[in-house]
Amino acid sequence: MSTALALIESKGGKKAFGPHPIPDGGIIAGFLDPEGNLIGLVQGPPGM
């Protein structure tokens, strides 16, 4: 996930929150695109 967030930031996006672990073992993060739209990223738990 950190690779995806780094790529997003290199293209003009900005981290809004996260990455944070979620109860099922996955990870969630959010970013703002260059126009200010909030978009979420979710990584499933290991083995999914």
Break the fold down into its secondary structure elements and pairings:
Elements: H1 2-10, E1 14-21, E2 27-32, E3 38-43
Antiparallel strand pairs: 1-2, 2-3
What does this structure look like?
With 48 residues, the chain is α+β, with helices and mostly antiparallel strands. It has one domain. 19% of the residues lie in helices and 42% in strands. It has 1 helix and 3 strands. It has a 3-stranded antiparallel β-sheet, with helices on one face. The two termini are 15 Å apart. The model has no long low-confidence stretch (mean pLDDT 93).
Q: How is the largest sheet built, in terms of strand order?
A: 1-2-3
Q: Compute the number of strand runs.
A: 3
Largest sheet: 3 strands, antiparallel
- The figure for the number of domains is 1
User: What are the secondary-structure elements, in order, as H or E?
Assistant: HEEE
Helix-strand category: alpha+beta
Feature tags:
48 residues, alpha+beta, three-stranded antiparallel sheet, elongated
Summarize the structure.
By secondary structure, this protein is α+β, with helices and mostly antiparallel strands.
